[in-house]
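Posting here for the record, re: NAP.
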Amino acid sequence: MGDVLEKFFVVVGLLVCLVYLLKCLRFTKYIFLHFWKVLPRSFLQSTGQWAVITGAGDGIGKAYSFELAKHGLNIVLISRTLEKLQVIAMEIERATGRRVKIIQADFTQSNIYEYIKENLKGLEIGVLVNNVGMLPNLLPSYFLNVSEEVQSLIHCNITSVVKMTQLILKQMESRRRGLILNISSGVGLFPWPLYSMYSASKAFVCVFSKALQAEYKEKGISIQVLTPYAISTPMTKHLNPNLITKTADDFVKESLNYVTTGEAHCGCLAHEILAGFLHLIPSWAFYSSAFQKFLLTWYSDYLKQNANIK
Ligand SMILES: NC(=O)c1ccc[n+]([C@@H]2O[C@H](COP(=O)([O-])OP(=O)(O)OC[C@H]3O[C@@H](n4cnc5c(N)ncnc54)[C@H](OP(=O)(O)O)[C@@H]3O)[C@@H](O)[C@H]2O)c1
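Prediction output follows.
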């Protein structure tokens, strides 16, 4: 009996070691790609002539627009404020020589997709970045204290991803080539109290992307979901960059090194490590009232001191 028990514990121990070894290998892959960029410069261009980026007028979307143009793609900028898009289009054309098309649309509305479809007609689209999103509360807040624009948030964070994918995936499927990057968030990896609506909307993006990748990977299409944490943009009130808080440009440059690494990642090594630490917190601690108190006090103070919050 003692012998069997001993063998059982040895097997369990070996399995635990194996699981951690696999996790280490995953990190090794990111560390390798962080320092040695192995994505061939022609890879993104080989997917098609155009890249479509939603929420392209600022922050992460603007950074993707510049970076993808540098990789040789023509760019379709879709966002809300026309003047911002016009300036960015001029800057991209001047800096990279690529063509830029502008589509003004408000993703909180559900009746914009026919107009977008009309404007995308005839373009060979290789890359779609479903980036647009809204965060109703930067400071942690109880659900009932957050603005009541629930429908807008659902349209902007969820409907936009589904509808834009519907519009573009069909032509990618017929050419058997294409890359879709869906920008979710680290708070979509598991439920975050005090960011309930945002966290749930980003969890949708994760689940949708992974299911879709399973359906379409055999058809030559890569669908990747990115789950970053803090990035200094207008959404985070230009939170001061540091080891964890990335600038949009740094984040986007690094994230493009990982486009061939699988269905999901955080987009940068620092956030991959942070996600690893957060996963170690037991759920009884994470969902305790003490943790919520920590978010409402210490984390709120940190945001107030480091972001441009009035
Ligand atoms: N920043 C972060 O720390 C962070 C972390 C994780 C995930 N994310 C996700 O990354 C994505 C981009 O975030 P970001 O920080 O770059 O956002 P951002 O700073 O708010 O800028 C996003 C751009 O999207 C546009 N936009 C916002 N609402 C729109 C709407 N209803 N219709 C059309 N365009 C709209 C804005 O238009 P205007 O130019 O008109 O303002 C702006 O150009 C979001 O999905 C966000 O959830 C961000």
